[in-house]
Amino acid sequence: MFTTGSKLFLGATALSIVSAIVFGASVGGSAGMLGTIGLISVSVVFAFLAGINLFTRDGNLAATESDVERNAAAAQAGVGRSMWPLAAALGAGGLVVGTISKPVVFKVSFIVLLAAAAEWMVQGFSERVSADSKYNEGIRKRLLHPLEFPLLASVGAAVFIYSFSRIMLNIDKDAGRWVFMVIGAIITAVGFVFAAKRGMGKSTVAGIITVGALALVGVGIASAVSGQHPIEPHPAATAAVCLGTASEVQIEEVDAKASQSVAAKSNPLANVYLTSDEQLYALNTGIGNVQYHEITVPRSNAVHVLFHNDSAEPRRLTVHLGTFKAKDGSEGSEEAECTTALEKGGTAFLSFKINKSQLASSTPYRLTVPGVEDQEIKLLVP
Amino acid sequence: MDRSKETVSTLGRMPSTRRHWSRAALLTSVGLMLAGCANNAPQDIFEPKGENSKKIDTLQRPVFYIAGVVALIVIGVVGYAMWKFKDRGQDIPEQTHGNPKLEIALTILPAIILAGISVPTVITVFQLDKKTDAECIINVTGQQWWWEYDYATGQCGDVKIDKPIVTAGELVIPEKTNVLLRITSRDVIHSYWIPALNGKRDAVPGRLHTLRMQADQPGIYTGQCTEFCGLSHSRMRQAAVALTAGDFQKWVDNQMKDYVAPEAGSLAAEGEAVFTANCSKCHQINDLKNADGSPVLSEPDLYVVPGVAPNLSHLMNRTAFAGWTFDLLTDECRVKLWNAKPADFGAMYLKGITPECFEQVALRDWLRNPPGMKPMFVDPNNLSSTGGKYRGMPNLNLKPDQIDQLIAYLLGRN
Q: Which residues of A fall within a CB distance of 8 Å from B152?
């Protein structure tokens, strides 16, 4: 009369009723009251479940109803486990968080949501294509692999590159050289071994590569957590330094520590020379050996001049960029930029830009070398 | 298509439908080829008019002929093989793999041809890149969507330039003179090209590229920007005008002459006031003064992305405006100038835009609504990406009488 399932729930009902009586009798106060109510509620739920099991006969079908058994939903191959609902939920959650936090969270969540929706949809479709689960899986692969493989490869490459970049940011430039050399040597050696031992199993090769990749990602994570190695900021060559009004200490610091790693990919507008007898002149790019003491500079344009110091003294080239009135009408101070001080034979690029006509400035645009008197090259800005 | 109607005229000949298609393809090909022919093509690269472009021509013609012959041989052999070995139901011939002698020959022969071509190519490249023998240097700066020229002080051929000259659209050079253009850009990448005088050179922000320019005789040589640079790329044109040394001297003298104010009380004088109040924020007219005698200084760096606008001091000495797109000359005068004999060209050009040759319509339309004539990035409600600065000239909402006054004023800027 009683089915197996109903016996279980009937027993649980009886146990919870007994528990409620014992608990109510032994524990007083509000805690006892609440516990008793809770246990009685549990017994009601168990009784309800026992009733359902009795009514449905535990969901068992009679042996004579074999067709129904074959065609019943429970008899069909179960759908595969899916992580896409979870991914979609994460995406949706991230979408909400992203709207009030950072745009990047919103964008990433949106992509996750889209990907999860697509995967979930295709999985749902493919699992119902036929009764053959292998065929269904093949359909899913045919639809999604063209998307999944490039995407996963991109993500993999990004993780790889990002990990490597974290490592390189974490170590200083001297260590960087060694890391590059060692990693390069290891990759070459491993490649050589792979090439030499043709009989090596696929799983061995895959294992070695996986270990290498995991090591890289692991060290990358550790480097990211450790942070970037300290970068000492280069002191700026301020107008005071360029015009020689800054303190000796400031000037020396600029000359000693300023960035001097400028790559010149452009033709200079002119080459500016300070001769051994401290004469200043310019050679205009395009004209052979005519010495200029004024050069025309296009307005609002990035201009590069290449300074050559042939003087015995360390010298810098300074460009005087004019003096303009402030917004309140007061006279401003002269603006200037300069190279670092160059030893004899040194060269340096000086890049600058002049936006205003000469008439707008109360002081002339010109190139000078602080410490060298009566020598200048006028800059004509039409 | 109803294939049953397809007929075969005679055995072995093409079906009539396929023959019709073949004829159509042949006619289309011939039509396309003939479309390249024109007797009035000022930007024809096969008509060099200067030393540098002739060097390119001398190089490219034999290369073109060799490549043409090779192409004909390849097409012929492929065509023959297709016809000869067409599938007619015959047995598949014996399959072979590899023919070392043939493969070596087919590797060495192209290598010899390429090596032969590379010698004059490299020589020409170095000749065209030479930048130490210039007799005149001119800075050329591209910006959306026009070219600015400023002439460095010093010698330019036989002519001395005492103070910087800034102009736009039209590059004026002395004939038979090695001019070196120093090309750059203030915003995006452009490319400078006057086909009759030399090849192309990219104008890249922050970088200075050089391009040699030389014209054999006086005349006007046109070109256009050849690097896509935004909305009005197709309307970024330019011209080089070559003058004799004497005429170039006159042109330089004219560029350096003092500002001539319009007669007090005239329509042009009213135009000067309109210009000062509106246009001079971006456009410079040299030596223009305010009522108090102070110089009128344009500050285009505050209003437009590239930080400059065309200098209009001598607008009426140019034949076109707004990126050398719209004529300042009437059709009749333009045709006369363009077809002038070299000996007469300079005198005609130096006249500038005379009242009888002045094409007012385009300039009036421009002053009325510049973005209506040339697409530009000037919607005042959509400038957040540029920090409120325009790319091009906005509509100043000038009134008709202000336009009349400006036209009268600008007509005197020669």
A: 284, 295-296
